[in-house]
């Protein structure tokens, strides 16, 4: 049976300017792609604590815990011998002061939410990210995305996904 790895992924939104802060991954898995911030939990670390820590480590933004909203989960299969479960979070940056810092892992960049660079992101993002960004979204409409890849981590090609995300 496959190993299941858990990750966090945090989307930082600024509704007052209709912008999103994405990071260009500078090394490791997904290098060169734009993505939210996040990573793997340390031993005995909760997913929420991991989300807060990774966000600060990767772009300098210190999120007060009450502003970390759970956004649901994305499950990725077909990545034999591994499956991934990505725990999504959404943060409204209008709610607290922050500063953005370049890290050695991520180059943080602002995008208008009307021009998100989907062609430079993981292939699944275009299916679920618009839902997480929609004005109608709230923490009680958690996403449950299931994506099945062709088994090749490098080509990152999605064979199937559920359409009731
Ligand atoms: P280490 O090796 O400890 O530096 P860590 O920083 O813990 O790794 P990292 O940066 O490799 O983890 O985490 C991968 C990040 O990419 C997580 O935020 C989850 C995210 N991710 C993985 N697959 C994804 C996919 N298909 N679509 C997406 N984000 C994905 O949008
Ligand atoms: Na990371
Ligand atoms: Na990490």
Structure description:
- This protein is mainly β and 165 residues long.
- It contains two helices and eight strands.
- Strands 1, 2, 3, 4, 5, 6, 7 and 8 form an eight-stranded mixed beta sheet that branches.
- It is globular, with a radius of gyration of 15 Å.
- The model has no long low-confidence stretch (mean pLDDT 92).
- Bound molecules: ligand 6U4 and sodium ion (2 copies).
What would you call the quaternary organization? single chain
Instruction: Kindly report how far apart the N and C termini lie.
Output: 26 Å
Overall strand count = 8
Q: Write down the secondary-structure element order.
A: EEEHEEEHEE
Broad structural category? mainly beta
- The mean pLDDT is 92
Bound molecules: ligand 6U4, sodium ion
> How large is the share of residues in beta strands?
35-45%
Number of helices: 2
Radius of gyration: 15 Å
In the predicted model, the low-confidence regions spanning at least 5 consecutive residues are none
Shape: globular
Q: What percent of residues adopt helix (DSSP H or I)?
A: 10-25%
Largest sheet: 8 strands, mixed
Structural key phrases:
13% helix; binds sodium ion; mainly beta; 2 helices; single chain; 165 residues; binds ligand 6U4; globular; eight-stranded mixed sheet
Summarize this entry quickly.
With 165 residues, this protein is mainly beta. 13% of the residues lie in helices and 36% in strands. Residues 38-39, 54, 58, 105 line the site of one sodium ion.
